[in-house]
Amino acid sequence: xxxxxxxxxxxxxxxxxxxxxxxxxxxxxxxxxxxxxxxxxxxxxxxxxxxxxxxxxxxxxxxxxxxxxxxxxxxxxxxxxxxxxxxxxxxxxxxxxxxxxxxxxxxxxxxxxxxxxxxxxxxxxxxxxxxxxxxxxxxxxxxxxxxxxxxxxxxxxxxxxxxxxxxxxxxxxxxxxxxxxxxxxxxxxxxxxxxxxxxxxxxxxxxxxxxxxxxxxxxxxxxxxxxxxxxxxxxxxxxxxxxxxxxxxxxx
Length: 252
Prior knowledge:
By secondary structure, the protein is of the alpha+beta class. The protein has helices at residues 2-19, 51-58, 83-86, 89-92, 97-100, 135-142, 145-151, 236-251; strands at 23-24, 27-28, 62-64, 69-71, 107-115, 122-131, 156-161, 164-176, 179-189, 199-208, 211-219. The strands form 2 sheets. Strands 3, 4, 5, 6, 7, 8, 9, 10 and 11 form a 9-stranded antiparallel β-sheet that branches. It has a two-stranded antiparallel ribbon with strand order 1-2. Strand 1 (23-24) and strand 2 form a beta hairpin. It is globular and about 60 Å long. The protein starts with a helix and ends with a helix. The relative contact order is 0.17.
């Protein structure tokens, strides 16, 4: 009787497992036609690429100078800019509160990675992910970005941070595979000093499920082809954004 009871229990467990999908070599498979679930909460930090992944993609080492940030809409940036620059600031600056407007932002995570001090192509990479309640809401918000970013092509934004004034020219805008990308050139000035060397900067913003991902990549202005690194100002920010979007799919 005891053996028969154990057999019955094992059959019941097997029924429960196979009710969720097939079993191959002892591994349960998800049931077919399951809809991807929206991401939310602390899990969104896993969308951010770590230093090892970035180093592999861009061919140079990176270090983190601070832990990843996580919170709600309150940690979005709220930079101020002159009126003539305000409507294009989100093309040149990451995670601007103005970009999300009245959207019901659920969670925000971000991380900054920096060159380790040796010669290289890239100074810094900043990643960000913002979640909305549903994929439909994220898609609707993202649909507003292409025209808005295209409107900013060839315009210049100006920011003041303490004594440093930075002018950024938006050189090019491209839209491809659920990603909007910008190529910018930033020049910083200090009072009574010559302008600092212009730095190429790449921006990308993409959508996957209920997540908006953002990337900002800053390149050395005096980099040489022989310096370590494989990053390309035209494509690498988009590549990082796509990798983050793939992680959204894996986590959903």
